[in-house]
Design a protein that fits this description.
Blueprint: H1 3-9, H2 18-47, H3 54-65, E1 68-73, E2 81-85, H4 91-100, E3 103-107, H5 108-111, H6 116-122, E4 126-128, H7 136-148, E5 152-155, E6 186-193, H8 198-201, H9 209-217, E7 223-229, H10 241-260
Parallel strand pairs: 1-7, 2-5, 2-6, 3-4, 3-5
Antiparallel strand pairs: 6-7
Helix pairs in contact: 2-3, 2-9, 3-4
InterPro entries: Plipid/glycerol_acylTrfase (IPR002123)
Protein name: 1-acyl-sn-glycerol-3-phosphate acyltransferase
GO biological process, one term: lipid metabolic process
Amino acid sequence: MTQRRIAAARGERTQLTPSETFRFWRRIGLLLLTLLSHVPMHYLWRLLRLPSPWPRWFLRRVGRIAGARVQVIGIPLRRDVFYISNHLSWIDILALGGASGTAFVAKAEIGETPVVGWLASLNRTVYVKRENRMGVAEQINQLRDALTDNWAIAVFPEGTTTDGRSLLPFKTPMLRVLEPPPPGVMVQPVLLDYGAVGEEIGWVGEEGGINNARRVLARRHSFPLRIHFLEPFDPRDFPGRKAIAAESRRRIEEALVAALGGPLRPFAWPVGPVNYTPPGD
């Protein structure tokens, strides 16, 4: 791991070189052009009461601008599906949303973030307050309503990001929507595999979101991202959210071990203490 990467993981602001600065602002310019071209078309489709493909196209385009070269392996279900995925980076949302058109479950703070919250809402994001234990039932109802509308919903049950060579225990509260499963809904595990650049792209340690975005957008090269849509399963065959989480994690771990060509390693933050909440019930 480079000294720049270690500094970033510590939350330190690293100075960009002139070439990195050029690449960063070039990508920012392309992102703004994509925003200005795609969002008005989305609203036009909405005005005409047509299904809008523009959020999906927007996410796909932004992911490519950020450097991701996505390869889809397997067949994603398009509707009536609950995706359960590992999590490394904010790039995950761009790539997975662009490849499948799925909506996401996100922290409520995302919805309150200027611009980012607005863009997330365009993609039908379902917001939850992790600390609001009294409001879990209401949040579950929001997810059920989304699935009733035949949406695809994606969750990252690790609750934080990793380095791509590890897999944390899966938290289960948001899987209560599958107790019992809505009629016809399937679960499809998803593996996001960044290969050798996973440790560099991964948003881990105490690195701030702005620092991570600057570092990724200033990179010289593009990077591969293989999205493995694994074999879906009927959640009725695994009663209860813990059983569903365990089966999803088993399949993702099996696919990750195959992708790495060896066993997983225990996850350790690059610096400092572990800063995620232990898995809950």
